[in-house]
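Pasting as-is:
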Amino acid sequence: MLHGGRLGNVRDNVIHFTSSRKDDIRLAEAVLAINKAHVAMVMEQNIIQWQTGTKILAALAALSASTLDPNAEDVHMAVEEAVLAQIGPEVGGNIHVAKSRNDQVTTAIRMTLRNDLLFIMQEILEMQQNLLDTAAKHLHTIILEYTHLQAAQPVTYAHYLVSQHDVLERDLQRLQGTYKRVNLSPLGAGALATTSFPLNRKRTSELLGFDDVLENSIDAVGSRDFIIETIATLTLTAVNLSRFAEDLIIWSSAEFGTVELPDEFTSTSSIMPQKKNPECLEVIRARASYALGDYVAAAAAIKSLPTAYNLDFQEITPKLWDATDNLKASLNIFAQLIPYIKVSSNVEEKAAAGFVGATELANMLVRKYGVAFRTAHKIVGALVKSLIESKQTLLDVTSQMLQKAAKDNANLELNVKLEDIIECTNPRKIVENYKVQGGPSPAKVEIALKERLKSHVESEKAVLSLKTALSNTSNTLDALIDLYSSQSLDNINQNR
């Protein structure tokens, strides 16, 4: 900690208790870039002498995250101490002119976070691509979907995978919106009220690749809503991944038998040799609760804080990194898993046992025989009840059985053709008739896939553009620092 001025000695256990250095290494590269941009700006603004600035920049250029003292109070002081060690306090002491750790730390968090957000966006895009590629291979693969964990209606596996793609698309859009609010520069806000030095905040914002300045100085150093928003967005994504994982966990059980997971993503029991346990998916499901916990912990820590800077902020930043790291890992595993899931072809027997054609049977009575839907619903429901009692399925239904159910339960005389009944018990035929926009018929899913592949290309371009912009900014800053640290002010002015 800073000693020798306002404070005397500080207890070692207090230093250990309040230090953030174990989490700071993640910010090291950002803090170095911030110091370079800030020094270049104060040189341009004639706040420090050019010769002083060139020496500081040369010292900064010689540093890297790996060369910083891990025992310093924090990464900000580690950088400053490393510069002082190279060029002494009389020159190096000016590195902190017109800058506070308050504005520097929140700037560093934003810079580090935007890289993490771009990485997560890229992982989502990869998972979406695998979903679409796999869906294209299963346009005609019929599975059963469930409501209340009861067999409900047949769909295609492709239709299900597109639904998961669309969930991720909203997650991607939320991340893109979050990125815009993260990518604003607090640098120059100082401790909370800027400074009497004539800073050019737009210049440092530009040098560090931000879209704009986070203008109000109190808001700039005293807000961490961008962290809360990010964790909230990541929590939604984690919850969505958890639900997807839950589907596959249930469907891979012998009782459902819808899918089989690849061996390399499962494990067996230490005692039961027949077991194939979906452990990767179980971990993904569990880690969704970590994200939720990180969100609650961060929000609770901030909810009662007074405005401007408080050291409580330091305690929520690790929650942010935990949330980003967990989601990166879950997305990576899921993206690799999707192409290797095997789908069961034994759907007709399960469809019959689950009476999934019942809805279509009622629809057929409405469409072809003029029965009111609620009446048809009652007739078919009574028919299903009698079939269950006699241990039969819809495959056993005859015209006479349906006629009796209509007479007994609705006092209707119906003479339904057997071919109409058979058509309603064929899950493949049922799915082909679901031709409403957004439905599971192969024709509609094929259209949906083409649309999503087209938008996927645009999303990839958008994320690549953001990554390229940051990379170009980093290269531009490095080139500027090389120039400023090696040439005199007269030479710079001549070259302008």
